[in-house]
């Protein structure tokens, strides 16, 4: 956020609070007053990490914030963002990053040989230290970013606080979202999602283009090409699960797109049932769509605890499994003896879904559960910012749909087709990365090795 004269730390707090769904492991804010960068970050949710006293200490005109969902490096304090790189030459910077570097291990090994000093083990720190290296050697800011972009391979949407400037840049395929907005009373803001603009009193200007660098300073907004765009390949999971339903991408409201997914599911996988029930919260728009198209009554059959984080993006498998029991409670009076259509956004590992089907049948008393999924079978790992782990962790990679149905104990199972998904979002297929469904990776993944903890393994 670039907003001279405004309470930027508080506005940034509101912004990252709105983006809490994108990561619940840690949170942080860095602020510049043009002379120095002050920051605060810690493990936990935004409201746990910050209080009034901390926000009052973070004074300045420019700020960036971050909520972390770890895809490279452990979930610990050393890997919290924003990452601050101090400089004796007055060229300090703070950086926040969403995505995943395919060549993180290769770059880390090379940089260690060149005597780079690392605090943590995240790929975000690799980007920050590369950028700091070039700034220390008196590269102009744009040239330093271009050189950094030339070396990093993968998915990245990055914001940088560099003393008197706020900068954003995006990978040449635009895999992770990034938007530019204008504050209603002056100033500009970048965000991973448009839903945060409402919270801070901003209006959407446009999306940051693949390969673009955007610089904001006292002279206004400047845009240059960092790397030539290779393609437009936004992660389709932003539409299916990750982004909030009140966000917009490519001019499409995600709530509407998810409702259309449910309508298409009802066309592709009809069933005779008594009630359509969503798995809250991301399954709700699709369940409404399924009910509308199928003429089956919609109802709430699962109550979600408002105090538990999203199950899919918890870092450890045991936490995911326990999360199901703590997160959802079945409404037995609504479910008992009924044939239920249960609508979910996706099945990745299968353990969460198995637990939910069990809840609905055993504790809810449902006679039948017909599971409908708004994503196609998730068969291939993501290397671009979703922590799906290795291929052998993905249930659809090694089992047929009927075998998955048997494992999760559903009476029937239907996945939305890729064609149906594209029809629902009403955008060209070429706009998206669908690699987790079709094994067609827009950025080469040959350099990826060692998994999420590859850098820890080097240091141990």
UniProtKB/TrEMBL annotation:
<dbReference type="InterPro" id="IPR029057">
    <property type="entry name" value="PRTase-like"/>
</dbReference>
<dbReference type="GO" id="GO:0004044">
    <property type="term" value="F:amidophosphoribosyltransferase activity"/>
</dbReference>
<keyword id="KW-0004">4Fe-4S</keyword>
<feature type="binding site">
    <location>
        <position position="235"/>
    </location>
    <ligand>
        <name>[4Fe-4S] cluster</name>
    </ligand>
</feature>
<protein>
    <recommendedName>
        <fullName>Amidophosphoribosyltransferase</fullName>
        <ecNumber>2.4.2.14</ecNumber>
    </recommendedName>
</protein>
<dbReference type="InterPro" id="IPR029055">
    <property type="entry name" value="Ntn_hydrolases_N"/>
</dbReference>
<dbReference type="GO" id="GO:0006189">
    <property type="term" value="P:'de novo' IMP biosynthetic process"/>
</dbReference>
<keyword id="KW-0658">Purine biosynthesis</keyword>
<comment type="pathway">
    <text>Purine metabolism; IMP biosynthesis via de novo pathway; N(1)-(5-phospho-D-ribosyl)glycinamide from 5-phospho-alpha-D-ribose 1-diphosphate: step 1/2.</text>
</comment>
<feature type="domain" description="Glutamine amidotransferase type-2">
    <location>
        <begin position="1"/>
        <end position="219"/>
    </location>
</feature>
<keyword id="KW-0315">Glutamine amidotransferase</keyword>
<dbReference type="InterPro" id="IPR035584">
    <property type="entry name" value="PurF_N"/>
</dbReference>
<comment type="similarity">
    <text>In the C-terminal section; belongs to the purine/pyrimidine phosphoribosyltransferase family.</text>
</comment>
<dbReference type="Pfam" id="PF13522">
    <property type="entry name" value="GATase_6"/>
</dbReference>
<comment type="function">
    <text>Catalyzes the formation of phosphoribosylamine from phosphoribosylpyrophosphate (PRPP) and glutamine.</text>
</comment>
<feature type="binding site">
    <location>
        <position position="382"/>
    </location>
    <ligand>
        <name>[4Fe-4S] cluster</name>
    </ligand>
</feature>
<keyword id="KW-0408">Iron</keyword>
<feature type="binding site">
    <location>
        <position position="436"/>
    </location>
    <ligand>
        <name>[4Fe-4S] cluster</name>
    </ligand>
</feature>
<dbReference type="InterPro" id="IPR017932">
    <property type="entry name" value="GATase_2_dom"/>
</dbReference>
<dbReference type="GO" id="GO:0009113">
    <property type="term" value="P:purine nucleobase biosynthetic process"/>
</dbReference>
<dbReference type="InterPro" id="IPR005854">
    <property type="entry name" value="PurF"/>
</dbReference>
<keyword id="KW-0808">Transferase</keyword>
<keyword id="KW-0479">Metal-binding</keyword>
<keyword id="KW-0328">Glycosyltransferase</keyword>
<dbReference type="GO" id="GO:0046872">
    <property type="term" value="F:metal ion binding"/>
</dbReference>
<dbReference type="GO" id="GO:0051539">
    <property type="term" value="F:4 iron, 4 sulfur cluster binding"/>
</dbReference>
<feature type="binding site">
    <location>
        <position position="433"/>
    </location>
    <ligand>
        <name>[4Fe-4S] cluster</name>
    </ligand>
</feature>
<dbReference type="Pfam" id="PF00156">
    <property type="entry name" value="Pribosyltran"/>
</dbReference>
<dbReference type="InterPro" id="IPR000836">
    <property type="entry name" value="PRTase_dom"/>
</dbReference>
<keyword id="KW-0411">Iron-sulfur</keyword>
